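Please decode residue identities from the backbone states below.
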């Protein structure tokens, strides 16, 4: 059993972490026992934070997953766990202060990750420059091919050169 001072340290640490997160997803998994003090710890740590309403009056066995950066990655990871462990079920979530339903959490997990979005944006930004470079290279390439074909066809042989321009003296 933890001492009261250790519990207070855990409470303060969790409260500081929960005060800075933007996304929280609450889930449950039945059949797994947990001490009542963990439940109280979560409720007390959430006190005075944006996620306080989500963690009020917890019942049963619960887990809390949170992130301060990428809600999509968190939702993807938890959705994978939910598929692998049938007892793991979503209960509710908060993203940027907005309460999410179970369906919205699953929709969030279907979105592309931050890295995928950055990759797509970089491709879209880079595509016009690639097209311009390709078009500019095509002009030189086409000129070289045309000149080469003219040489092969002997278009530049003797007698085909333009007459010199005479200047008045």
């Amino acid at each position: 059993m933890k001492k009261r001072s250790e519990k207070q340290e855990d409470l303060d640490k969790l409260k500081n972490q929960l005060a800075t997160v933007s996304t929280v997803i609450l889930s449950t998994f039945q059949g797994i026992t947990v001490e009542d003090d963990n439940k109280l710890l979560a409720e007390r740590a959430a006190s005075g934070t944006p996620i306080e309403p989500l963690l009020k009056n917890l019942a049963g066995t619960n887990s809390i997953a949170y992130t301060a950066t990428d809600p999509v990655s968190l939702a993807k990871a938890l959705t994978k766990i939910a598929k692998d462990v049938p007892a793991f079920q979503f209960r509710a979530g908060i993203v940027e202060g907005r309460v999410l339903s179970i369906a919205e959490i699953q929709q969030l997990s279907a979105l592309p990750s931050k890295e995928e979005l950055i990759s797509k944006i970089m491709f879209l930004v880079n595509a016009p420059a690639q097209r311009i470079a390709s078009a500019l290279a095509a002009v030189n390439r086409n000129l070289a091919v045309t000149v080469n074909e003219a040489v092969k066809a002997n278009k530049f042989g003797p007698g085909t050169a333009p007459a010199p321009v005479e200047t008045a003296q």
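Observation: Strands lie at 23-29, 62-67, 88-95, 98-100.
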